[in-house]
Structure formats: structure tokens, C-alpha cells
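FORM 7B: Structural annotation worksheet

SECTION A. Query
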Amino acid sequence: MGLKVYPINFGNMTLDSSGLVLFRNPGIRTTIPTLGFLILGGEEPILVDTGSRNAEQYEIFGIGAEQTAEMSIASHLARHGLRMNDIRHVIHTHAHIDHSGQDFLFPMSTTIAMSRRELEFAASGLMGPGMYTAVETKHLIDRLHTRGALRLFDVDGTFEEEIIPGVAVRLTGGHTPGSISVLVETDEGLVNIAGDVAYHVADQLIDPILDQAAHEPTITANRAMSTLDEKKAIKRALSGTRFLLISHDSPALVRGGKVIGRYHHAIDNPNADVTAAANYELLQKADDIAA
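SECTION B. Predicted structure
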């Protein structure tokens, strides 16, 4: 089908490590990227997530943030010969401020898409004003009342909704009740753009720091659902997936529900083809597994 997926680094955040993975290196600050993804080669270009509105909004949480001109959406799109108006669909894995903060840059003729459960949850106040800010939530409500400006998915785990041929969404849950995965069919297998289903591939999926049972992932420290819900979401994200793309770590190559390789240089390379297994470095313990 020829669909390709490219990473977009919208900015970097520096925060306490234990705020990502439960009980991981408390007191030690770590820097993570905030990634979106550009899907090309289909009927229309699709952007997954839009990053943060600005760096200043994180100061109240003691989080350092960096957003340079090169990290802007317009700059990233230009590298692929695109402009903002060329994007017909923006899909949100969920609507936290680091994923929906630049929706306002897109005209109302661009359709923002997310799960209905996520919009309900954003407006519920259950995670306080930090994860879902008033300005971002109000913008989504404005789109809800503008014809064609907002699309709401009703995926509930029993079916998927198609965006264009080869691109669909399914309910992931775990991180938030309305978190979704964007599934992209490529020549080398299924790409799962899974948002914040996990934060740190090594410490949660490859060598979990808290769990001893086989195939048992370690949970994050930032979620709105139960421990079991998040573990199920992670396992669902790995099931049937060839390329797992999360929002704050480098892409992972998957086989049989296990991570077998990483593409560490993809984060700051907007031309990185994350749909090519040859670009991934196999893990040592997986070097006897064919890529």
C-alpha cells in the first residue's frame, strides 16, 4: 500500500524520572521528547497529535520544556513538502496538553479526530486542570459546534474506525479512558501509534523494573485508569504489532508481542522511516530472531 510513518519532535520536557515509570529513579531528572507522527503515502496526509501550545505552561509543575522554531509543526511539514493546509486529518491518541496543544493552528476546515470518551473525560475534571487545560478543552468544544471541524470515534474495543484506506483507530485505554491507537498498514507490517500507553520502552517492556512474571509490563506513574487496565492496554498495543510508536521514547520493533529492536536515532530525524525493520537495531537477547 506504500504507507509510511515519520516522527515529529514537537519539543522536549525535563522532569522527575519517577513521574514517568512508577518508582523509577525518584529524584533524578530526565529529558524526554514529545513526539507526533506524520502518515504519508495514502489518499491524504495525516498528522497524529500536535504537541504543546507553549513551554511556559509547564513551569507550574516544575517541568522544564524546550520548543524551538525547528520543532514547529510548519517546520516539520515543510521538510516533507507540506503546508498546514495540506493536512486534512489530525488524530489525537488522547487530548492531554502535550498532545493537543497546537490544534488552534489548524483551520476549522481541518478535521480534528479523537474518541468521544476522551472528550467527555477531558471535560469531566477528573484529572484536574493540568492535563486538560481550559483553553485546549474550549477549543475542542468550539470545533464540536463547527460543522466538520471535529470527528468523534466511538470505538469501544469491539471494532475499529477507518480514516483512510490502510489507517484506522481502535480503543487502547490504560492511560486515559479514551486513549486510542492509530493503526497503519505498511508493507512490512502493522504500525501501532499508541500515544502514552507506555513512557519508557526499556524499563516497562523490555526489562520491566517492578515485575517478575513473564511478559508482564511495568506500569507508568501517570494514568487515569487502574493498574490492570493499563497492563491490558500495553499488552493490547503489542498484540499483532510490528512497529510500536509511543509519544515519549524511540520506536520499537515487535515480534510475537515482545520488543526485539529499537530505532534510537529516529527521534531527531524527521526523515526517519520507522516502517522499515532494517533501520532498527536488534536487542542482544533477540539477535537470534530474524528481523
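SECTION C. Observations
The CA atoms of residues 250 and 284 lie 17 Å apart. The first helix runs from residue 73 to 79.

SECTION D. Sign-off
Analyst initials: ____
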